[in-house]
Amino acid sequence: MSNPAYARGQRVIAHFLAGGLLLLGGGCQSWREEMMDQVKVKPYFRPANFNGETQLPATLRRVLVLPVCGGRVAEVEATLALDEVLLSVLQKKARFEVVTISRDEIQRRFHQPEFSSSAILPRDFMEELGRAYGAEAVLFVDLTLYQPYPPLAVGFRAKLATVQEVRLVWSFDDSFSSIDPAVVNSVQHASHKDKSSQLPVDMTVGTFQSPRRFAAYAADAMFDTLPPR
Fold first, then answer.
1. pLDDT at residue 198 is higher than 50
2. Average pLDDT, stretch 99-125?
3. Contact between residue 156 and residue 144 where contact means Cβ atoms under 8 Å apart
4. Judging by beta carbons within 10 Å of its beta carbon (0-12, 13-18, 19+), is residue 72 exposed, middle or buried?
């Protein structure tokens, strides 16, 4: 049986990528320049549902990142893979030093393997983790949407809270769909501004077939909204 959503997603992606594929015969540099000109005039997806302080507190230098909370949205295997993706993206942002805690360690300390950003936390949860890991803040990330097959989609809800006084420094709640033309263009733009690739090959289509790569794009867009240092 055909999947209408899948077919629609493929048509959207094909439409946005067609222009790039027609440019392959013009040489690497001209191809890249022409492609960048094309994507500049299209709308980009910009996450809108976030709030944060204008600047990270000067005392916030080390952040403990909790495992992704999949809840009923995704199996543990999927969230384990997303743990690695989000950690890699967050470290590249270099906003602060990042430390992690395993699900086994959370289970040992608090008798459950993961905590949602909206959960009622055990007494002294923040203080105990801050003291044990030398962290000034804790980052919670929840998976609110996860579709690991085309058309891919992922949603994140995240909160960065200080250990002392448990104050929210930043919060985020948005989703990304591969059938959204603005998302397609944003992925395409990110792909073609990568100067490390010298080949006139559009890698965008691979992102829309790989849950891991699509999640990395979404995580990058999410963590871009963190307050600056």
1. no
2. 96
3. yes
4. exposed
